[in-house]
Structures are given as C-alpha cells and as structure tokens.
Predict the structure of Response regulator.
Amino acid sequence: MKTLTNGPIIYVDDDEDDRFLFERAIRDLALPNEIRSFADGLEARSYLETTQEKPLLILCDINMPVMNGLEFRRLIDADEYLRKKSIPFVFYTTAAGPELVNLAYEGTIQGFHVKATEFSANKEQLNLIITYWKACIHPNSF
C-alpha cells in the first residue's frame, strides 16, 4: 500500500488575496506538497481531466462566479473519470449557515470548514485538515 501524502493540494477560490494567503500558509507550514490554485471550478476541472498527478486533496470555496463550489462538486460526482480519482473534497469557505451546510452535505463531500479570520488560526486549521488527509488511506493507495 502506498500513500498519497506528497501529492499536490488543489485550492479553488476566486479571491486572489485568499489564494495568496493559502499559499503562504502552506509555505509557512513547510509542507512538501505543491499547490495547484484555480479561480473557479471550470479551471480546476480542466486540470483534473488532464493531469497524471495524484492530488492529495481538493479545498474549495463555495461562492465563486463562473462555477461555484457546489456546482464543481456535482460536476465531479457526475463524471465517472473524475469521481474515480477519489480525491477528498473539502469545502473551505467564509460562507456558512445551516441551509448551505445541509446543501453541501447532500453531495459527497468529506468536510466543511469555515476559514479562520486570523492568519495564525487559518494556518493551524489548514495544518489539521491536511495532516488528517495525509493519514487517511485512499482508494488510489493500493
């Protein structure tokens, strides 16, 4: 059995500042994973359809133009090739409320996290999420 601990982390968020802070937090944590950042679900989908890389995790915002996070997750679920990649999908967003969380969990997501507002707390939160997924066994681990 192999682990996918060093695969790239996919981050989907339309906010350029949030993408910058995410990448900075990952660098500060000294994680070996490369980051693949995309401004919307369509860009991320193009990458997923063509890459030979085995991403560790997808962290995705919800409120984005072009294709929001919920639509992106549904697209992955509806596409057999993308679904069978078995990449954990976690919402990482500023938007939260009972209706939105329930709607998100109607799909096949593996987590829902509200972004911490302070950088140090945000970094700690990302470390916990990524550490958890590095310890998990994925279908592609065999």
User: Anything to note?
Assistant: The helical segments are 16-28, 41-50, 69-78, 80-83, 98-105, 119-135. The chain has one domain: 9-141.
